[in-house]
Amino acid sequence: MPSDRIKIVWIYPDLLSTYGDQGNCIVLERRAALRGISTRTLHVRSDEAVPVDGDIYLLGGGEDRPQILAAQRLRADGGLARAVEFGSAVFAVCAGYQLLGTEFGGEEGQPVQGLGLLNIRSGRGEKRAVGEIVGDVDPALGIPRITGFENHQGITHLGPGVRPLAKTVIGLGNGNGFEGCYQGHIVGTYMHGPALVRNPALADLLLSWAVKGPLQPINDSWAGKLREERLRAVLPA
Amino acid sequence: MSDLPMRAQLAVALGRTASKMSRLAGRGDGSVIGGKIGLKLDPDLLTRLAANRKLVLVSATNGKTTTTRLIASAMSGLGEVATNAFGANMPTGHVSALAAAPAAKYGVLECDEKYVPMVLRETGANVVLLMNLSRDQMDRAGEIWQLAGKWRKALDGADTHVVANCDDPLVTWGAQTAKSVTWVSAGQHWREDSWCCPECGGPLDREGTNWACRQCSFARPRPEWILHGNRVTTPDGRVLDLQLNLPGRANRSNGVMALAVVAQFGVPPEVAMPLLGKVASVAGRYTTVQYQGRDIRLLLAKNPAGWLEAFDVLDPAPGPVALSINAQGPDGRDTSWLWDVDYRILKGRPVWATGERRIDLAARLEAAEVDFRVVDDIEQAVLSVPPGKLDVIANYTAFQDIRTRYGRAL
User: Fold this and answer.
1) Whether residue B198 sits in one domain with residue B340
2) Is residue B180 located within the same domain as residue B306?
3) Which residues of A does the annotation mark as catalytic?
4) Residue B277 burial (CB count, 10 A)
5) Best mutation site among B206, B331, B334 for testing chain A: the one with the most A CBs within 10 Å?
6) HEC string of B311-354?
7) Cα separation, B106 vs B73, whole angstroms
8) Residues B126 and B64 in one domain
9) Pairwise CA distance, residues A137 & A132, whole Å
């Protein structure tokens, strides 16, 4: 399908982009381009309207205050919720992941209303989770082990209709032996920053949802080597 | 010194011995261990050592060590200046620096961003210089909006004078509560962390160096000192050429802030300028070392804003560049920040990638469509370039590794 055009929408880089979140845009663009699929990426700032016709929406990490502001503005805007109704794919990281739920913890741990696009509830954990994370993905998604770096103090409870993205092998993730979640075409994760770099199969899952069909295989090249190197470095021999 | 209580004198003496032993053992300059022992014996040692001195604290995400050196040099005409020249920028390092110069009436202390409130409280520093804030080693440094909030709180009601870069909105917000501030327009090139108003979260409108919140009254204060190109406009309206021996716009920015700080101690810019020019390298940064017919210049870059400034001083393309990345404790164990750096600027040059996290770097450079070669260590990169110039950009521990390899003297 070389004429396909995927519209990628990066939501609020001015509020939700703490550490390398841009990497997820770059990886999606690149893996599409290597297959001859053109993409167009829109950076939507928090004072702009969220378009409803995106194919893939990206939300990154952020500090407490920006997270609350982003949730307020996205709720008032309503664009993302409509895009989700239309079946668009969403990939949300850390603060972006939490705010898609019904509720998350603010600066003082106070509950803040989320967007309710995922039936999850997040709060503040006892200690900060900082370090490498590895998880075995729900077999229904058909992708290999995920590897990433987590840096958060969140605990996330999944409600009915939401499945965990992976079972944690290393790291804390949601705080109960599982990491991230998915519901329809929305994927949320505590693997912060450029999570799609080390997990090319996860990037391809989003792209395949966007093109509504399978993708031709490509060489993962250095990203593939990075993924192997990281898994080797953190998993017990 | 001699008016220190007995216990504090003992603490200082033992700390010094420990520093010396650490140096002899080749474990670094010893300032951390010495301060650690001193503070253990006398928890009030920093306060005691700071008493009756005129002190400056220097803090920022980037440029702390260099600016500390520039200020110390510019103040050298006033008398002996105590300073933590080796970048040991936490209270242990401050104790060592002050203990090492008991007679110094002045002190210039580089201070880790997180420790500004505590060190200000304990030392009662006369001047606090706040230069820039941007994303940096998030796995250990924490979040910068929160950090600026802590500065704000610590300065509120404190008896100190602040010199701050008003081109950085977050720094401005962090400094604004101080009872007196000298605002300096020192430039801001990395802007990805300041698109939103720190006060109300609204969008910041930016035009040139100017900025203002669209929703509330928070806006850039009027600067007294202005940097433009290589020139400085002083508070009395004179225009002077900066005479620095350090390259790049980041150092011009450090230079103008140093001038504003020393003016607080009565050192006029004409007197300070030649003293700034005496600083040609700082803890190995910007030094060129000759090795096997290559002139290797070492540049340190620890975070995305720092990389932007390192790119600014590179030899013009197609000059070769070697990059070295580690992810040990002091570097931050997370390499995500690589994706915030726009490496496309290196297109058209031969690039070598090395360091413990060279594969992370390779994945990043490949996605930026830069031509590069991955090598096992810096030596392979050095020997692969033809004799002539090579710029090396490395993050903290990678930089130290390279310094050690080519001689600690640089």
Assistant:
1) no
2) no
3) 94, 192
4) 17
5) B334
6) HHHCCCCCCCEEEECCCCHHHCCCCHHHHHCCHHHHCCCCEEEE
7) 12
8) yes
9) 16
Answer whether B201's CB lies under 8 Å from B181's CB.
no
Q: How far does B130 lie from chain A, in Å, by closest CA?
A: 21
Whether B262 is in a domain gets the answer yes
- Is B360 within 8 Å of A226 when comparing Cβ atoms? yes
B140, B145, B336 ranked by CB distance to A20: nearest: B336
Could you give the dihedral angle defined by the CA atoms of residues A80, A84, A89 and A93, in that order, rounded to the nearest 10 degrees? 50
Interface confidence, given as ipTM, is: 0.96
| Cβ contact, residue pair A22, B135, below 8 Å | no
B360–A contact, CB cutoff 8 A: yes
Q: Is A220 on the interface with B (CB under 8 A)?
A: no
B190 and B251 assigned to the same domain: yes
| Of B6 and B373, more confident | B373
Tokens (6 digits) for B317: 């393309």
Instruction: Among B223, B247, B276, give the residue marking a domain's end.
Output: B276
User: Which residues from chain B sit within 8 angstroms of residue A192, using beta carbons?
Assistant: 334, 336
Convert the pLDDT of each residue in B28-50 to its tens digit. 666 777 778 878 878 888 999 99
Q: Are residues B73 and B105 located together in one domain of the fold? A: yes
Q: How many CB atoms lie within 10 A of CB A115?
A: 21
Binned at pLDDT 50, 70 and 90, residue B142 comes out as low
Domains along chain A with CATH numbers:
5-234 (3.40.50.880)
Chain B residue at shortest CA distance from A19: B337
Q: Is residue B372 part of a domain?
A: yes
Question: A15: which chain B residues are within 8 Å (Cβ-Cβ)?
Answer: 196, 201
Give the structural domain span for B78: 43-276
The answer to whether B32 and B84 have CB atoms below 8 angstroms apart is no
